[in-house]
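Can't paste images in this forum, so I'm doing it all in text. The chain is below; anyone willing to post the predicted structure tokens underneath?
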Amino acid sequence: DPSGIYVEAQSNSASYLIQANIVSNNEGSEITTYSFSGTNQTLVIASNRLTGGTASGNFRGIEMNQWAGMNRARIGIRNNLIRRAGGAFTEALYTGGSGGSMRIEVNNNTITSNFGNGIGIANSISLTNYVFNNIISGNSGYGVNDSVNASFNKFDYNNMIGNSSGYYGGESSAGPRSISTNPMFNNPGSCDYTLK
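Text version of the structure:
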């Protein structure tokens, strides 16, 4: 697989941590988790810097795909920078799968200047995505595009600005405490997305 980091696992009660990596310019997605199944698994993807290349690339920043038959799983995606991902696929961060039950928490990420949607959700399972407290800006698609039943997914406390297709697409919608304001990055031209 041409991904920068690729994890495939099917063990019960297993824990996985992908943390503090710099991953850039791979032929596939920067981080891919694929074909997980089992019970009581935990996955944390945290504090990574994921930067792509050009709009012609065939990659995502974080791709979570083919989650099948997982039960009581918890996934945390937090404090990551995803920049200039996208291309033939259309999300910087993608969650998709079928069967089982999971909780995915997407918190405190900066998802900016990507080719396509900032976040794409395509889960046909008993899964709840909690998308809270992220900066999602300057992407060429939607900030978030939810193509499944939005009653399972919660969006709030996010700052959405400058996403070309709109802030929320498909079944997603802004929570009452979401905002749209300049996040005041320190120096995005030098890939410094800390805040002033």
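Residues 16 and 43 are 5 Å apart (CA to CA). The mean pLDDT is 86.
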